[in-house]
Amino acid sequence: VLHSVDLDILPGELVMLLGGTDAGKSSLLRAIAGLEEVSSGEIWIDDEDITRNKPNKRRVGLMLQSYPLLPRMTVARNVSFGLRQHDVSSTLAQQTADQFLTLVGLNQFAQHMPRQLSLGQQQRAVLARTLASGLRVNLLDEPFSAQDAQRRETLIRIVRKQQQQSGTTTLIATRDRNQAMRHADRIALIRNGEIQQIGTPIDVYDAPANRYVAEYMG
Q1: Residue 86: per-residue pLDDT
Q2: Which among 24, 76, 77, 145 would be 20 to 30 A from 113, CA to CA?
Q3: DSSP one-letter code for 22
Q4: What is the DSSP string of 146-195?
Q5: Which of 83, 89, 108, 113 lies closest to 98 in space, CA to CA?
Q6: Whole-angstrom distance, CA of residue 193 vs CA of residue 190
Q7: What is the largest CA-CA distance in the chain?
Q8: CA 215/CA 150 separation, integer angstroms
Q9: Average pLDDT of span 193-201
């Protein structure tokens, strides 16, 4: 699925992985997170080769498109789940969950069960859980796909602010070129499992590497 992907992301950078359906965006995120085994090459975070590490040893947050929530836990406990797995006190975990649920507009649903939420609300709950976990790398796969245009803009601004404040390195897979142009530090355009070009939004728009990039960026 992925071919000769050579991608360097700077610490604390927000990179938008841009491409159409079946471009390889999700596969790349899953490979970094350890859910897909790579047949060759290496994956590094800082000075650590994590290529063969188990997913739970990578300290990477992954938000999947399916946005699964644990069905027998309240929304608040879902959001605090990652923190509680890393020995954070229950009080701090609850406070953090409340903070991030408020950020995504779900504080009034904290004690609801996942089945009581709409799909858009479930997606926001998973986004809150990912951001609340405080991991050094966040991988977000189409994190706003179930939101309307106004909500998408609000959420990307929240992600951007949190990323800048915490210094979390963030890679977002998206098909939304306008959002990528407005908010990404850099854009990596992928097609058929190959990176076509990576650069700042202005660089990719003004100096496309090939015809595909030019057409995709409009």
Answers
A1: 74
A2: 145
A3: T
A4: TS-HHHHHHHHHHHHHHHHHHT-EEEEEES-HHHHHHH-SEEEEEETTEE
A5: 108
A6: 6
A7: 54
A8: 26
A9: 97
Position of tokens 């408020």?
102
DSSP 24-66: SHHHHHHHHHTSS--SSS--EETTEE-TTS-GGGS-EEEE-TT
Q: Which amino acid makes up residue 18?
A: L
- pLDDT (tens digit per residue) in 140-161: 999 999 999 999 999 999 999 9
pLDDT of res. 89: 87
Tell me if residue 96 falls in helix, strand or coil: helix
| CA 115 to the chain's CA centroid | 23
**What confidence score (pLDDT) does residue 134 get?**
87
> Which tokens belong to 197?
């070009």
DSSP assignment, residue 142? S
Q: Is the dihedral of CA 200, 67, 106, 138 positive or negative?
A: negative
Please report which helix (H) or strand (E) contains residue 75, including its range: helix 75-85
Q: Are 101 and 107 in contact, with CB atoms under 8 Å apart?
A: yes
Per-residue DSSP letter, 201: H
Q: Name the band, by pLDDT with cuts 50, 70 and 90, for residue 87.
A: confident
